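ping. complex inputs:
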Amino acid sequence: METLLQIMVILFLARIFSEFGERLGLPGIVGEIGAGFIFALVLKPADIETFSFFAELGAIFLLFTAGYKEVHVKDLKAASTSALIPTASQIIVAFGLGFMLGEMFGFGFAESLFMAVAFSPTSISVVVKTLIDTDYLSSKPGSMMLTSAVFDDIIGIFLLSIVISVATISQFPSGIQILLTLGQIVVFILIMGFLGWKIFPFLFKYIQKMHTKESLFSFVLLIALFSAYLAEVFGLHAVIGAFFGGIILSDLPLAKIETVQKKVSGIAYGFFTPMFFAFIGLSMKTEVLFTAGTFTILVIIFALSGKLIGGFIGTKLAGFTTKDSLIFGIGMMPRAGVELVVIAIGKELEIISNEVFSAIVLMVVISIIISPILLEMSIRYKEKGLIAS
Amino acid sequence: MIGENGVVNTPDNLFSISNILIHMTAEEENLEKTENEKDTGDSPRDRNRLSDICADIKISQIMSKEATIIKDDEPIEAIIELMARTPYHSFPVLNSDGELVGVIDQDTILELLFFERSHRDHHTHLMAIKALSEEAATLMVHHPVTIFHDASLCDAADLMIKHHIDRLCVVHDKKLLGVVSKSDIIKKIYELRGK
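pong. complex structure:
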């Protein structure tokens, strides 16, 4: 199939399926994954090189926009103390269960680690609508979910950085290797911090005055790509760089002018990220899921219960009631963007198998579908007093 | 009229010429204008000429010094009340040291007030946190577009036109000195061109 036609069809399907998903009350990402899946099933494309390249850019822009639009560094300070225990607990338990499952099935160290990282983050936006509809957004567990999720992307990216760096090692890394990896991350962050503090603000004053069309927008994109490239130079993955690039631009007034933000969102959500999610759908292997039935079911159970149990224990320790702890645990179950980026990288580096990849994609889709339903049920039950404290 | 701002006292700008023209009779002025247009092709609307003049006007000369501000610990109710009482669209937010730390505009407040009605796409994590917050420090946009007090009117106009910005905060060493809006610029141009 011609490349142009392929890209056109995939984007069209992604938009249409995303719309179906939205109409059914599901986030568009489910439709976009479905579009890629159907595309592969029906059209069986042989050459997907260009599509795969756009998908790679999609992952870069997904994390760049997450840093650029969704992270506010000052919020981290405010949230740090109150949400420390529940956040640490839900991430540690989910991570631990992911790693344990890998070991149970005899996976290598790196593959188990990737699974553990893919189990760790949460995509809270999936359940925000449910919290609003049930009038629970401002409740104790609702606000704790939001506070706890402030750290999620950051921790997810941090874990991913470490995992990618030690991925080539087939056993537990030595102290020196860990220090070396941490050193790379620290140096990269320091350079990015310096650029964001001194260089970019100075640069943007002049970019703003340039006569070239859309210079501000172009330079925001350039910084996204530059950060991604710089991360690769430091032995980190491009998406990690893009995420930090987004963060350092997030408080830069000239880079965050409303009109520029809209253009960045447009190109990211209108083209590149649908490509990424569709590529995830395309890469799924259903036949593998059938042969690895037990494993797939266990991935779903472990990933969802890890967040539930970890969230429950953490909030109980923080003094929540049983009902509120349960609501919090369920609220932390959904996964979406970062998790899929993690497994896409794992597959690209040939660390995780098709079985693991496909099972985690299915887990993500199921978590997106069932988390809001379970959350609403738990809230309703609490209100009706059907759950004993 | 122009002299009120004290700009005419600046020797190297073109205001003194404009000031003289203002004292001419309307007939003389029209005649002068027509002759000028014939000779040089210029008109009072000539873009270059206006740009030349505006390049010499400092923002500090036209900004509103008495801006209505919001303190960063101001509760949301007080902010809504302020918006209901005043005709402004956006308000600078200052911390206890008098430094500009953000800006709150009508769009932000409306978006947060109607957060529950907005489309799922807007239900992002950060928006949910803002929607729950009760004070200016969390509600505000943390990255206001600012302009230095010694920038020219042209710089401000360029920023506003290029990026569809209605109002700029004028700062010096992080301290807010005033605000300049599109209407401040238009008023100044109106003054320059004469009624």
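Strands of chain B lie at 70-71, 90-94, 100-105, 146-148, 167-172, 175-181.
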